[in-house]
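U., I forgot to send this yesterday:
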Amino acid sequence: MTEERADSCELLCLDLPHAEEIREQLPVLGALEPAASAAKGLADPTRLKVAAALAAGGELCVCDLAWIVGQAQNLVSHHVRQLRSAGLATSRRDGRLVMYALTAHGRALMGVLLGGDIDVAIEM
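Result:
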């Protein structure tokens, strides 16, 4: 049996009433865009680690984040910008520093992804 055949039915057996009930409950495609954007925001392992550090540390500057995750500041800066663009992090200027923190949505998503075990994620 080929891999294609293992992933699909060999017989069309649609349970139309059940399938239609589920179909009617699904959100429209446009309503799923914010969730897809948030998921894309955490789809990179380094970005996920940066977000885990923010979840564990609260508000951090890029210098601290870079040291915590063991990556270059310019790379970490790129990743926090991506998190901000996805609506998962915020930033504020504090004199010459820019401080980053997760949004409520970012914290909730990290809690789901990491199951509340932030320390394990930082060690990745």
